[in-house]
Design a protein that fits this description.
Layout lengths: L7 H47 L16
């Protein structure tokens, strides 16, 4: 069987296609994870900023209008 007709090349093409598919799936998963973490970080930042601004129970941080100790 001459090389490049049936056997090794078909297997190689199949492996290359599988590698390309896995790479694309990994890139999509990484992009989705990055987007989710970015959104979660933005939400936490906004929540903390709003809590500090309101002067509520913010772990000892003084909000707007809070009395500052010397």
């Amino acid at each position: 069987m001459p090389y490049g007709t049936d056997g090794p090349s078909a297997l190689l093409l199949g492996l290359l296609a599988l590698a390309a598919l896995l790479t694309a799936a990994g890139a999509a998963a990484a992009a989705a994870l990055t987007a989710a973490l970015t959104a979660a970080g933005a939400a936490l930042t906004a929540t903390g900023r709003a809590a500090r601004h309101a002067g509520g129970n913010t772990g000892g941080r003084a909000g707007r209008g809070a009395r500052r100790l010397p």
